[in-house]
């Protein structure tokens, strides 16, 4: 669940990790584990630069990335396997949050966006959030995301 320590004025992002990863047609499907690690690095840089709370939820667990804090980003995994596993986990997290209106769910999945909106958490499209990540990456030394 996104950290409650940052509720208040800070934005709290709950990211559909696989959905955001798939928003960039860069061959991620050839090595989804490497692409997920790269996304975690990007989200960590974003969270560190903005001070915003970021939690990424993935459908399947990466073998060498435990759930929990990784730098400035929190990584979570679906508690079950199968279709829409991460979506269901995100809905569970939103439903359990005492302040769902302070969350922003990053997804391009229309049904997930509807489900979290019913619980009081607005959705933000992945391309909008991808643009935020790219702005932060452009400010970093080297000016590009790690890959």
Overview of the molecule:
This protein has a single domain (4-139), classed as Rossmann fold (3-Layer(aba) Sandwich). The protein has a six-stranded mixed beta sheet with strand order 3-4-2-1-5-6. The protein is globular, with a radius of gyration of 14 Å. It is α/β, with parallel strands linked by helices. It has five helices and six strands; from the N terminus they run βααβββαβαβα. Helix 2 crosses helix 5.
Blueprint of the fold:
Elements: E1 12-16, H1 17-21, H2 32-50, E2 53-58, E3 68-70, E4 73-77, H3 85-96, E5 103-106, H4 110-118, E6 123-124, H5 126-139
Parallel strand pairs: 1-2, 1-5, 2-4, 5-6
Antiparallel strand pairs: 3-4
Helix pairs in contact: 2-5
């Amino acid at each position: 669940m996104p950290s409650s320590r940052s509720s208040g004025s800070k934005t709290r992002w709950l990211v559909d990790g696989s959905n955001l990863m798939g928003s960039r047609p860069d061959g991620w499907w050839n090595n989804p584990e490497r692409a997920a690690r790269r996304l975690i690095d990007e989200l960590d840089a974003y969270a560190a630069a903005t001070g915003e709370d970021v939690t990424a939820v993935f459908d399947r667990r990466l073998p060498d990335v435990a759930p929990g804090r990784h730098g400035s980003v929190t990584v979570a995994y679906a508690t079950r396997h199968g279709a829409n596993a991460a979506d269901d986990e995100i809905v569970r997290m939103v439903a359990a949050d005492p302040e769902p209106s302070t969350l922003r769910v990053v997804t391009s999945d229309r049904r997930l966006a509807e489900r979290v909106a019913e619980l009081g958490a607005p959705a933000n499209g992945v391309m909008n959030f991808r643009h935020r990540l790219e702005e932060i990456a452009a400010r970093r030394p080297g000016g590009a995301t790690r890959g």
